[in-house]
Amino acid sequence: MICKKGNFFGSFFRTERNVDYQSKYNSYMEKLENVENADEKVKIVKNILSVIIDYLNFDEAIQAIETDHKYQNNSSIEEIYDLLAYETDLIIDEIICEKIHRNDMKYYGNKKIRKEGPISIKVNEVPILLNPWNSDRVIRNLDDINDENVFDGVKYSFNINNHYLYPMDIAICHGGNHSQFSARMKNQGNTIIKSVRDYSILYNHIYFDGIKFKRKLDGSVIDMKFDKKLVFYSGVIFEYGRHLLESSYRRF
């Protein structure tokens, strides 16, 4: 029995150290093969994206509990997309979803402003990529969010900062990570979107091949110094966003 367990765990850790990202990527793409109905494809993409985001959130939370080394920083995925835009000299459209005083409008350049302010959503309505990096807060907040204390992103909007990424149909948290992690686990409450960022312009110029991001023009690799696993999942999310874009799906 001990030998069998040793073989199992030895195989597991060898697999983790030598991840075959190309095969993983192919598996994600195969899920969409032969799906001709656009609505069905959108449904599959959204479901898998939800699983990926939950996996990354729990993965970072587990890292925070189990180790004291640097956490994987899930929000780097938005930085990856920003780097893609920079490397291809493209400008991302952005809608600021906050009520801006007219005297401060000059600081926002040509960005669009949503005069109604933040977009209110149910806490599990959109997959939100979080950074639950503090183990004590991960554990404590699970008690703090309950039936008597339902999470209210509107009330505490000063602490919440979520960016919605189109066409990937995910949000990235830049404030309120631990409270939203607990609220999503317990499916209690609402939150807000403070920015809608449109990356659709990238798709005519860039693709992800399962390992690296490349330029369509000449196939050259876009170099980036980010965690390899996060680059991989940012690529899967990016290419799933392509399918949503081609299916003309838009949430907001």
What labels describe this entry?
252 residues, alpha/beta, six-stranded mixed sheet, three-stranded mixed sheet, 42% helix, 15% strand, globular, DUF6710
What would a concise description of this structure say?
This protein is of the alpha/beta class. It is built from seven helices and eleven strands.
Q: How would you portray this structure in words?
A:
It contains 7 helices and 11 strands. Helix 3 packs antiparallel against helix 7, helix 4 packs across helix 7 and helix 5 packs across helix 6. The chain has 252 residues and is an alpha/beta fold. The N terminus is likely disordered. A hairpin with a 3-residue loop joins strand 6 and strand 7. The protein starts with a helix and ends in a 6-residue tail after the last helix. It has one domain. The protein is globular and about 55 Å long.
The largest β sheet comes out as:
6 strands, mixed
Number of helices: 7
Using only C-alpha atoms, the radius of gyration works out to: 19 Å
Q: What would you call the shape?
A: globular
Tally of discrete structural domains: 1
List the helices and strands and how they pair.
Elements: H1 2-17, H2 21-30, H3 38-66, H4 76-87, E1 93-96, E2 112-113, E3 119-122, E4 128-129, H5 135-144, E5 151-152, E6 162-166, E7 170-173, H6 177-186, E8 189-193, E9 195-198, E10 206-208, E11 213-215, H7 228-246
Parallel strand pairs: 1-2, 4-7, 5-8, 6-9
Antiparallel strand pairs: 1-9, 3-8, 6-7, 10-11
Helix pairs in contact: 3-7, 4-7, 5-6
